[in-house]
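Hey, I was hoping to borrow your eyes for a little while. I've been puzzling over a protein and I'd love to understand its fold better. The fold is given in discrete form, as structure tokens running alongside the sequence. I'd be grateful if you could look everything over and explain what you see. No rush at all, and the record is pasted right below.
>
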Amino acid sequence: MAGNRMKAQSAEHRASIVGKPVGLSPVARRTFGREVPALDLGGISLLVINDNEFVRTYMQRLFSIMRVGSVVTCANPRSARAEIATVRPDIVVIDLDLTGMDGLELLHDIRRGGAGIPSDIAILVASAYVDRDYVGKARDAGANWILVKPLTFRRLYEGLVRVIMDERAFVEGDVYVGPDRRVLVGMAGYDGVERRKDPQL
């Protein structure tokens, strides 16, 4: 426990893990399989926003197996803003299909500084939506990475890895706020929208 607290304290000095060179990240790395590094996630804190109790429990169990340092879940998207400001997580894991509130709206509010946390916080979208237009909207709203259910251990872990290793510059403009969309994360097996194959994206 003491070791985890020390890792968490070191993580508090980071405003965000987005755009940080991998060599400067406090997350230790080693090889996991051929392409995905195995990370020590003991110093990482997550906030999972999902209104489905089964999915929240399932994801919390998987993150526990991954030895994530801290996982806080939030069932009510309306109260998520207060939870985010209190927990101040390293990564927000959000579903797009939230009862009473569009997940895209919450994502947009975070990126526009309306959630009481730095707008450049890392955001991993885990959603059942498979429609390319909707996934594209999530990317355009500033998500770092987008996973489409079903969520397996490997897919969820790879999503965290991609977010943590995301070295793209953070862009703040009048139209868009989020990681630079002109650069893709440099790992094979992109799980989101293939923009280069679709001239409309």
